[in-house]
Amino acid sequence: MRKRLLKFVATVVVLITLSVGLAFVRGYEMNLGVVALKLGNGEEALSRLGPLARLGDGTAQFQLGCMYALGWGEPGVLRNDKEAIYWFERAGFYKEKGVDPGAPAELGVAESYAKGTDGVKADPVESAKWLRLAAAGGSKEAVAILRRGTTVSRP
Question: pTM to 2 decimals?
């Protein structure tokens, strides 16, 4: 009985140690990726965030979506709507009933293009395109903005 208990405790300790170690590595890689992004090194950001995104990390998936939607980190990551939408959908932060998980992120991209923020120049055509994508994905806010015929304006 005592050997079984010791074996169980050892297994639990190993699992906790692995979990903490993996969390540390994830945080370290995420931090390096975000720093690379801030410094404009798209290739480095992609090499750090890409594996995390492919492993299912929602934050990394969202970051990749933004990188592709806005062309952040050029060279290395050129604007690519198809890739952006793919990663926004994978991020799945907003799994509301009937709403595409990428819709809130698409609304954010529309806002960035409307105001010229997040390192991109204001582009009303791009803003409208992303707003329509968000509305098609079920974003009630995007639908309301389109009905009003105004541009994206959030506090």
Answer: 0.59
